[in-house]
């Protein structure tokens, strides 16, 4: 096993002796922040290869969600570049990036509660003109996300939080994206539902989708991920094969908190993302209270 690397370097390898596939998605030397406030990201680089899951962990306020906002075009970086399949897409907006294959599943719940599961899922493909292709993709997401298939005709607002999250993943997969950005998908879910959700993210990987995942359940997410990146002070502090990060006792103590069994059993957030020395700012929305009123997808 290779050693986890420290610094701002990009991350792409699963293991040193394995052939590394071409990157699907890269952010390079990104500097980004909000308005006139100090920079949040200070030269941050991450690379995601096809069919792999890269997991970002780090304390509250480290900039994890900001990375995903830059990646999906919600926030323009001050410098650095965003590359999709080698093409520079820096500065393009969310609509253009979505059309090019970058899907962002936001933190919290974002289904249209009054609409059926089917209607929610089909919304993900509203730009796809080929009706047959849409049907094929519906069939695929119903197979990958069993709850979506079973509750196809149900009103989405009646589903549990974990079930609604599956609907969101299914909706994101309807455009057959090259990369899916997932912000804390297990937030508020019990350990069993979290396990099922991570199994489905692994299935998305099997289908060839690249996943950039932000998680508070750092240990459990790293057990499923291929590559882990620990963010701190707006940079990638340490990165490497997820298994190596998990196996490093010092890293575990510093960033991953309690022993695996304790963490899994309690379902508690890990130290990497538990409230720490840098609490979220007052103007930050409380987590898991995001649009639940069906006002926007
Ligand atoms: N819309 C915004 N306007 C101003 N500052 C913001 C905004 N969103 C985030 N920030 C600030 O940027 C910094 C990084 O926030 P970000 O949400 O990326 O952190 P995070 O690592 O995702 O944290 P958490 O684990 O709490 O979700 C924080 O200091 C936060 O207060
Ligand atoms: Mg966040």
Can you offer a commentary on this structure?
This protein is of the alpha/beta class and 297 residues long. It has a single domain, classed as Rossmann fold (3-Layer(aba) Sandwich). It is built from 11 helices and 11 strands. The strands form 2 sheets. Strands 1-11-10-4-9-8-7 form a 7-stranded mixed β-sheet, with helices on both faces. Helix 3 (117-123) runs parallel beside helix 6 (161-173) and helix 6 packs parallel to helix 7. The chain starts with a strand and ends in a 31-residue tail after the last helix. 47% of the residues are buried. The site of magnesium ion has 3 residues, from helix 1. GO terms for molecular function: ATP binding; ATP hydrolysis activity; branched-chain amino acid transmembrane transporter activity. Residues 262-297 are annotated as: Disordered. Belongs to the ABC transporter superfamily. Residues 25-258 form the ABC transporter domain. This is Amino acid/amide ABC transporter ATP-binding protein 2 (HAAT family).
């Amino acid at each position: 096993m290779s050693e986890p690397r420290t610094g701002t370097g990009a991350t792409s390898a699963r293991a040193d002796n394995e052939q590394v596939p071409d990157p699907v998605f890269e952010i390079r030397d990104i500097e980004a922040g909000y308005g006139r406030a100090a920079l949040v990201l200070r030269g941050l680089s991450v690379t995601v290869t096809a069919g792999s899951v890269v997991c970002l962990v780090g304390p509250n306020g480290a900039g994890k969600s900001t990375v995903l906002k830059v990646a999906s075009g919600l926030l323009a970086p001050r410098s650095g570049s965003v590359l999709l399949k080698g093409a520079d897409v820096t500065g393009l907006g969310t609509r253009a990036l979505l059309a090019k294959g970058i899907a962002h599943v936001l933190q919290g719940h974002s289904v249209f509660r009054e609409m059926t599961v089917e209607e929610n899922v089909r919304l993900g493909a509203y730009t796809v003109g080929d009706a047959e292709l849409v049907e094929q993709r519906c069939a695929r997401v119903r197979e990958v996300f069993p709850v979506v298939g079973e509750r196809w005709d149900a009103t989405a607002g009646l589903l549990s939080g974990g079930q609604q999250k599956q609907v969101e993943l299914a909706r994101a997969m309807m455009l057959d994206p090259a990369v899916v950005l997932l912000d804390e998908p297990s937030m508020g879910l019990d350990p069993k539902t979290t396990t099922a959700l991570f199994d489905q993210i692994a299935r998305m990987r099997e289908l060839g989708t690249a996943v950039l995942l932000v998680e508070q359940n750092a240990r459990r997410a790293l057990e499923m991920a291929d590559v882990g990146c620990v963010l701190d002070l707006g940079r990638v502090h340490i990165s490497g094969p997820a298994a190596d990060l998990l196996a490093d006792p010092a890293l575990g103590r510093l960033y991953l908190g309690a022993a695996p069994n304790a963490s899994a059993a309690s379902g508690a957030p890990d130290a990497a993302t538990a409230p720490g020395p840098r609490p979220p700012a007052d103007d930050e929305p409380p987590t898991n209270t995001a649009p639940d009123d069906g006002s926007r997808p």
